Amino acid sequence: MAGAPDHSGHRKRLRQRFMKAGADALPDYELLELVLFAAHTRRDVKPLAKALLKRFGSFAEVISAGPRALKEVEGVGETAVLALKTVQAAAVRMARGEVMQRPVLANWQKLLDYCRTSMAYEDTERFRILYLNRKNVLIADEVQQKGTVDHTPVYPREVIKRALELGATALIMVHNHPSGDPTPSKADIEMTREVREAAEKLGIALHDHLVVSKDGYNSFKTMGLL
After folding, report:
1. CA 205 to CA 203: how far, in whole Å?
2. C-alpha 68, offset from chain centre
3. pLDDT tier, 1 (very low <50, low <70, confident <90, very high otherwise)
4. Does one domain contain both 21 and 39?
């Protein structure tokens, strides 16, 4: 096409490769290019994709980064942020759909995938509660508290109060460690003990407490802490 930028052919070839071979055939920077095509309809976005990966580390970390941090990368504006955050929202929505209103204990890996997708790359701690009914079906998923980079205040009384309001008979607690190390802290262990004791008095089971991070996860039950 006369007057078309030199990289127009690259866009076409990249789209064709994606449609033919799927996302697994593309490295992170090319998958990011596809996302950024919507934000920059004519610009060569390969340098921008690589700059984002250099700053944040991986595709997952790029789409999970906050809007303010994304805009610190030269070339990223509102439209690019919207494209990236829409991809993240879609990933979380799909993962959540795999676990809501389903027996959690029979779909444990999908639950772990959802928790990591929705929380592992956050830059501050978040504490969420998964509320289950008598059949261990997930009936509610709520972020109860948001904290700082290394602390989230959790109040056992509020956790149990909400369980009673929902008619839940079991809980799974989940929080993230922005540091990347999913090892539970002493405060995590003590808080979990307090919630378990309060829950047991009312016949509510605490199935597990998961700590997720970009580098992995830990389960209190697997570690013998529950």
Report:
1. 6
2. 18
3. very low
4. yes
* Domain termination site, one of 36, 59, 93: 93
Domain assignment present for 111:
yes
Phi and psi angles of residue 141, each rounded to the nearest 5 degrees, phi first: -135, 110
Residues 136 and 171 in one domain: yes
144 in the same domain as 35: no
Tell me, yes or no, whether 107 and 81 share the same domain.
Answer: no
Whole-prediction pTM: 0.80
Nearest to 96, CA basis, from 81, 115, 72: 115
Q: CB count, 10 Å around CB of 60?
A: 17
Residues in the chain: 226
Rounded Cα–Cα distance for residues 97 and 110 (Å): 10
Q: What is the CA radius of gyration of the chain?
A: 21
Retrieve residue 165's tokens: 């309001």
Element (H, E) at 35: helix 28-37
Six-digit token string for 142: 């709520």
- pLDDT tens sequence across 35-85: 999 888 878 899 999 999 999 999 999 999 989 999 999 999 999 999 999
Q: Mention every residue, 6+ apart, whose C-beta is less than 8 A from residue 133.
A: 139, 167, 168, 169, 170
> Is position 48 within any domain?
yes
Give the chain's mean pLDDT.
Answer: 89
- Residue 188 near residue 210, CB atoms below 8 Å: no
